[in-house]
Design a protein that fits this description.
This protein is α+β, with helices and mostly antiparallel strands. It has four helices and nine strands, in the order H-E-E-H-H-E-E-E-E-E-E-E-H.
């Protein structure tokens, strides 16, 4: 009987320890960060072209957008209270690509009702560019020149995020392990009990 109690205590402690660790395995929070090329590209001649996205290395360009007053001034009449920079990328196209170019981006957190402003850095200042269409996780814009490009959103839609799973809909591997361990412990207790009674 003593061995059964010891085994039961060990199993209870192990399952409790696993359950307390569940929070560390929750799915990551959705993020608007993550701009990629998702659809069409079209140059001035109507031809497709290759687009490369890189991280922005121009510190001056990034620092300007950290100033809320500057952002509001640049956006002008399109500014909505609460707007913020979702992401920025250095957008590169092959040398000699006829301008203007139209590019469709995949943008996390965007749906058809999201107010989106796209900015282009001309080397000294940020300026607005034409936004052609906003749809589910999609922003299409036309550029007369390219360099750092920033995406400004007025809201963030967690349901329009690529590559994330809500913790409520996914089952952590740790949950499965805890359940499996509990079953083994119960089976061990039953087997040990039968052995002691024999």
């Amino acid at each position: 009987m003593k061995k059964i109690k010891q085994l039961a205590g060990f199993c209870a402690a192990a399952v409790l320890a696993m359950s307390m660790s569940l929070g560390a395995f929750a799915a990551p929070s959705p993020s608007a960060i993550g701009i990629v090329i998702s659809g069409k590209t079209e140059d001035a001649n109507g031809d497709e072209f290759q687009v490369t996205l890189e991280e922005v290395t121009d510190d001056e360009a990034k620092e300007k957008l950290e100033d809320a007053d500057y952002l509001k001034e640049i956006i002008g009449d399109d500014y909505i209270e609460g707007m913020s920079v979702a992401d920025m990328k250095d957008v590169l196209v092959p040398e000699g690509t006829p301008m203007p170019v139209t590019i469709e981006f995949e943008v996390n957190g965007v749906n058809k009702d999201t107010k989106v402003v796209v900015l282009h850095y001309n080397g000294t200042e940020w300026e607005k560019v034409e936004v052609n269409a906003v749809a589910y996780r999609s922003v299409t814009a036309t550029f007369s020149s390219l360099s750092p490009v920033a995406f400004i959103l007025d809201e963030f839609d967690e349901t329009a995020v690529v590559g994330t799973t809500s913790p409520k809909t996914g089952m952590s591997p740790l949950v499965i392990m805890a359940a499996f361990g509990a079953v083994i412990c119960v089976a061990g207790i039953i087997a040990l009990g039968k052995k002691e009674r024999a």
